[in-house]
């Protein structure tokens, strides 16, 4: 098995490195975060992701994975260089290519003194044309070498979901290889065959199409979420309407499918918001105004106002009220709060009411944002006691066990409004509890 260097050991990079190592590759992980590298050498991971810790531990114990911070060494040691650094969204909604530009330059400088043919594999999500016009160009500029002659370059998008990354990479729906030269395409295809040891559905295309596949994939998922949230908001206005029944019926249609048809507070996380925003800006740069994609983004932003309006209609003034929020991670099985709908909701509410929060994994990440301006509860009992309103934002499985009996036991002093944006609870309205399931009209 060939040696592989993975540059950037965040969610995508570490998952890729650990999986490849467990499949027999010798993997050299490179990251400029020394603290993260030290944590990894102790066989610990710096974020919560189910099963990933087991893979990392096994990779180190079998000596298939090493970590360091020197791209020069990583470039020398491996034929394949996987770029997995972050491309976050700026405050203006643009894609921040700072890290990927630096890595491209560093790889170019390393290649300058290396004669062996290397293949650069870009997994970081980037706007169309970035792989050729920025990454390959910077490598050529710094190395004085020519793409496709002295080194290869490919774009291989990732389709990992936080909370199920190991399952996603081990059993992929598809594998996409974007290459503009047959040598790079054949080499990467052979590597993937050795890694997976079985036939997987592979789309072989050029680089620009592969870049667009990644953006189009995430834009469509965001569209499905905004669509079903629109249906939920319509259900709110029609007595007896039930968005879950409607979603189930839609999902049974094979032309539609049931995934991402779950109404809620809106999409978040490290991918969908920034990728949709980046896609919109990329379209505009070509002279095309993507009206549909812009509408998807607007629906998602407005979803929080739907929730807030429900609370205001039921409680009246929020001044002096205590609003408790269950879940700050953008989805269950992760501690990631990036672009979390819950975080945006807290920002909107914290100057209007007293805010308490609970989350099984994301409390400390949330504290880094809000400090002492809100209160943090480690138990459901502490969260609910003396609350006026409970808003369920994240679909953690443990929240499904909350019962009417428990709520009445925890909150004995006042009526309680529950706004269940995920419709997790099986609770009926009573003289003490006012239950609202988003998308399920009374």
The termini sit apart by 61 Å
Assign a percent range to the helix content. Answer: 40-55%
The number of distinct helices, counting runs of at least 4 residues, comes to 16
Specify the biggest β-sheet. Answer: 8 strands, mixed
Average residue-wise pLDDT:
95
How do the SSEs run, as a string of H and E? EHEHHEHEHEHEHEHEHHHHEHEHEHEHEE
Rg of Cα set: 24 Å
- Structural class of the helices, strands and pairings? alpha/beta
Number of strands: 14
The low-confidence parts are: none
Strand order of the largest sheet: 3-2-1-4-5-6-7-8
Task: Characterize the structure shown.
This protein is an alpha/beta fold. Helices cover 44% and strands 14% of the residues. It is built from 16 helices and 14 strands. The strands form two sheets. An eight-stranded mixed sheet has the order 3-2-1-4-5-6-7-8, sandwiched between helices. β1, α1 and β2 (26-30) form a beta-alpha-beta unit. The longest helix is centred in the middle third of the chain and has 30 residues, at 207-236. It is elongated.
Please sum up the structure shown:
This protein has helices at 11-22, 34-41, 52-61, 71-77, 98-111, 130-143, 165-170, 182-196, 207-236, 243-251, 272-285, 291-315, 341-349, 363-370, 380-384, 404-410, and strands at residues 3-7, 26-30, 65-68, 80-83, 118-122, 151-155, 175-179, 202-205, 322-326, 354-358, 375-376, 389-392, 416-420, 433-437.
């Amino acid at each position: 098995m060939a040696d592989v260097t993975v540059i950037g050991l965040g969610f995508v990079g570490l998952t890729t490195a650990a999986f490849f190592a467990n499949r027999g590759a010798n993997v050299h992980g490179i990251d400029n975060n020394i603290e993260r590298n030290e944590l990894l050498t102790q066989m610990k991971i710096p974020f919560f992701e189910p099963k990933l810790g087991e893979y990392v531990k096994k990779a180190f114990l079998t000596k298939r994975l090493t970590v360091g911070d020197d791209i020069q060494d990583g470039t020398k040691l491996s034929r394949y260089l996987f770029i997995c650094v972050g491309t976050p969204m700026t405050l203006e909604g643009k894609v921040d290519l700072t890290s990927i530009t630096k890595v491209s330059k560093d790889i170019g400088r390393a290649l300058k003194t290396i004669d062996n043919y290397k293949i650069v594999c870009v997994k970081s999500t980037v706007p169309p044309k970035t792989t050729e016009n920025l990454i390959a160009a910077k490598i050529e500029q710094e190395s004085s070498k020519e793409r496709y002659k002295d080194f290869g370059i490919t774009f291989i998008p990732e389709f990992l979901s936080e909370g199920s990354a190991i399952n996603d990479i081990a059993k992929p729906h598809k594998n996409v290889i974007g290459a503009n030269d047959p040598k790079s395409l054949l080499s990467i295809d052979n590597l993937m065959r050795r890694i997976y040891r079985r036939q997987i559905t592979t789309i072989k295309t050029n680089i620009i199409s592969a870049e667009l596949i990644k953006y189009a994939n995430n834009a469509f998922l965001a569209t499905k979420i905004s669509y079903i949230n629109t249906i939920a908001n319509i259900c709110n206005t029609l007595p007896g309407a039930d968005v879950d029944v409607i979603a189930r019926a839609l999902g049974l249609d094979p032309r539609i499918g049931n995934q991402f048809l779950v109404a809620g507070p809106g999409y978040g996380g490290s991918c969908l918001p920034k990728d949709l925003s980046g896609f919109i800006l990329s379209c505009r740069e070509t002279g095309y105004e993507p009206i549909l994609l812009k509408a998807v983004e607007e629906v998602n932003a407005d979803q929080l106002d739907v929730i807030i309006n429900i609370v205001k209609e039921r409680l009246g003034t929020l001044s002096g009220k205590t609003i408790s929020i269950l879940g700050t991670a953008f989805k269950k099985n992760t501690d990631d709060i990036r672009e979390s709908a819950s975080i945006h909701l807290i920002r909107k509410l914290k100057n209007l009411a007293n805010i308490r929060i609970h989350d099984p994994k994301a409390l400390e990440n949330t504290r880094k944002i809000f400090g002492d301006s809100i209160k943090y509860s480690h138990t459901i009992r502490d969260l609910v006691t003396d609350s006026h309103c409970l808003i369920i934002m994240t679909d953690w499985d443990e929240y499904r066990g909350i019962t009417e009996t428990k709520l009445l036991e925890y909150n004995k002093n006042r009526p309680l409004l529950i706004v269940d944006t995920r419709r997790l609870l099986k609770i009926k309205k009573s003289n003490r509890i006012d239950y609202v399931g988003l998308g399920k009209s009374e």
